[in-house]
Amino acid sequence: MWYKTKSLYETTHHSNHTVVKMIGKSWTAIQHNIQIGFAIISFTLNSTLILLILRHSPKSLGLYKYLMIYISAFEFLYSLMDIIVKPSSLLNFLVLTPYFCKIFLLTHVPQIFHSYGSTFLVMVNVKESPFSLNVALFLAAVYCGFFGASMAIFGLHFIYRYLVASGSKHLEKFNISKTSFFLLAPVVYGILWGWVAYCPVGQNPATGEHIRSNILETFDLQVEDTVYIGPYFYQKQPNGTYEIDMQSIIGMSVVYLIVSSSFFTIFYFGIKCYRCISKLVPSNDSYRTKQLQSHLFWALVTQTMIPVILMHTPVTLVYAFALLDQDIGMLSGFVSMTIAAYPALDPLPSLFIIPCFRRALKNYLTCCPKPNERAQDSTVTAPRTGSIMSIANA
């Protein structure tokens, strides 16, 4: 009788493992399909926005035009990097882009976001990759670096909007060289985050042993077939005790400083910008000025909430759970989807809230361009203190 019970247990146990693997593969396939979909949307919307900025921006937009192009180009490259890190995704993208409806038939998912105990990992399946392990690890670190660079870009956006809204004299001193220096902040943030990903929290044997059985059970993957990046806060020692990994603590301290500085910059300059916009509206509010204030406010709120909801909050939460040694497993995969959604959704406020771009987009979509509108957009002028007002008022 005992051997029948044992056989039943082994059958049930094996069946449970099979179900877990099926769920893991299906979940990562869903993540993959959504990431590809958002990448295509990002390419389309950011290319459209760059075209509209170049052809329909009012003259008073000034250097802000180049900042908007810089951000859109970065988001385009970010989405491209998301695909390049996943070689099979790149092939599928090139083959299936003309047949968008077939994208959801994809099954192979080489990149995985996963939480297990005190680790949160970005893993890349290199089993069928043309890249070597070292190249795949480097590309994964560069991908993480792009995320770090985006933290600085959020801040730059709001700093510049505040300077324009307040009529700061610093803008008069802005030339190409100073603008280039201003735009170096994302490069510095990206290098710092990429260094953290490659060195302090890069691939190491202790993390590999910690996740070995879990990723085999969940994703049917061997550790040797993956490269992975992420902290392992509490490392298990041979005697069964746990020790805090100082490399992970140092690396994550740098990451939290980057995220916190981005948070602070967005809210500090966002609030100051809105206060300046409110003061610019004259006391005898007309319908036009009220409408203008509404455009600026909602553009500001929307462009604040997109990175906070899609980037800052998810990443902060998953790292916090790992630090608290709380396993959220496959739920951490939502982070990959929110990160992919950011460059796809971020152009929308500019496309639909700023009237000069909204009108131009509508004319293109309805195939009835009005020549006089482009002339109007190119000749709008405004005082220095009202430059940001002319953006919404154009």
UniProtKB/TrEMBL annotation:
Per UniProt, the keywords (alphabetical) are: Cell membrane, Cell projection, Chemotaxis, Cilium, Glycoprotein, Membrane, Olfaction, Receptor, Sensory transduction, Transmembrane, Transmembrane helix
Q: Which SUPFAM superfamilies match?
A: Family A G protein-coupled receptor-like (SSF81321)
**Mode of membrane association:** Multi-pass membrane protein
Task: Assign the protein's first listed, main location to one coarse class.
Answer: membrane
Q: Which Pfam families match?
A: 7TM_GPCR_Str (PF10326)
What molecular functions are annotated in GO for this chain? G protein-coupled olfactory receptor activity
Hey, which family's this protein in? Belongs to the nematode receptor-like protein str family.
**Quaternary state and interactors:** Interacts with odr-4.
Q: Which PANTHER family match?
A: 7-TRANSMEMBRANE DOMAIN RECEPTOR C.ELEGANS, SEVEN TM RECEPTOR
Annotated protein name in UniProt: Serpentine receptor class r-10
